[in-house]
Amino acid sequence: MGAIEIKNNIYWVGVKNPDLRIFDIVMKTENGTTYNSYLIVDEKIVLVDTVKDGYFNEFIQNIKSVIGDRNIDYVVVNHTEPDHSGSAGKLLEYYPDAVVYASRAAIMNLRNIINKDFNSVEVKENDVLKIGERTLRFISAPLLHWPDTIFTYDEKDKVIFTGDAFGCHYCGDGIFNDEAGDFSDEYKYYFNVIMGPFKKNVISAIEKIKPLGIDVICTSHGPVLRDNPRKYVDIYWDWSKDVLDIPKNNYALILYVSAYGYTREIAKAIAEGLKETGAEVDIHDIIETDMNEIITKVDKAKALIIGSPTINQDAVKPVWDVLSLVSPMMNRGKAAFAFGSYGWSGEAVQLINDRLKGLKFKTIEPGLKVQFVPTEEDIEKAKSIGKEIAALIK
């Protein structure tokens, strides 16, 4: 596509991948994506992020169309995920005197990505780099969505480079949001999958950039946000603000799947015990509940209680679907309990417990297994367990 000037000698020099349909194994990308990289031309020349491996020839042509035979002085690495650092090794071979500016975590990651040493400077919160008329300020933004992430702010032009934050997988004809048409669905989907597990970090980063004048947000994927960029910061805030009261004390979430109603009976008994002790309880059949609603409630809950029958020596797929979306970052240290009815083997409860421990929950062992139909004694035991959990989350 070629380089495009964004503002006052700041250029987009990225590449497009309109045909991409799956990203990072799990994300659908029906409108492709872009790998955005930016060139700042001043007394010194700065490149902000690189692009995915396989696109280097197009990438270097874009760069050279702007700077010709001049050298790149600094490479700012906001984030080292390989779709943004995959061509860094070739770039540093091309410009061997360039100095990488990045967080400590990013420098360590990059060394393990390109497997060569390079000139580098570790940046910390509010460090600055003077490049001529411009001063670049570095803002720590860890876990948006990797521990290495920083934002880079051009104080003169009020342009902020935010890595994956505020981006989306969308490849339009142009590069700017006012040229892209409606990408709101892609924007929300990207937030849910990439940034949703890190809402606390979203809030923290927004608090840091709120005082800044921002004319353009330059993201690593999707449209460059030059039209009303504050709108996108506000959207992120709205989507993340519920984390301010997470976890909610005294709130337990019960999720279950039940083949013949027996696991549901246990779920209801646990809920009754929780309520008798004053806990707030939500109880949902996973099959009948929207997955986004489930995950939002998981993040809010102080305790997760999850039940499944055992079918073919395993928990059932809807349970695994839920647990595949639960973030250990959001739920570390919360109480969790597994239960279920079984016929002839009963492995589901232990398998769920093992997964919950892997997700960093504090499991209440050994869980509750009931063979076929719960007896009155089983129901009373389930109520008692509910009371115990309620006491833990007060």
TrEMBL record:
Gene3D superfamilies, A to Z: 3.40.50.360, Ribonuclease Z/Hydroxyacylglutathione hydrolase-like
Pfam families assigned: Flavodoxin_1, ODP
Transmembrane domains' residue ranges: none
Domain of life: Bacteria
CDD domains, per database record: flavodiiron_proteins_MBL-fold
Flavodoxin-like domain segment(s): 252-390
InterPro entries with a match to the protein in the record: Flavodoxin/NO_synth (IPR008254), Flavodoxin_CS (IPR001226), Flavoprotein-like_sf (IPR029039), Metallo-B-lactamas (IPR001279), ODP_dom (IPR045761), RibonucZ/Hydroxyglut_hydro (IPR036866), Rubredoxin-O_OxRdtase (IPR016440)
GO terms assigned for molecular function: electron transfer activity; FMN binding; metal ion binding; oxidoreductase activity, acting on NAD(P)H
Family to which the UniProt record says this protein belongs: In the N-terminal section; belongs to the zinc metallo-hydrolase group 3 family.
PANTHER family per the UniProt record, alphabetical: ANAEROBIC NITRIC OXIDE REDUCTASE FLAVORUBREDOXIN
UniProt-recorded name of the protein: Lactamase
The organism of origin for this protein: Fervidicella metallireducens AeB
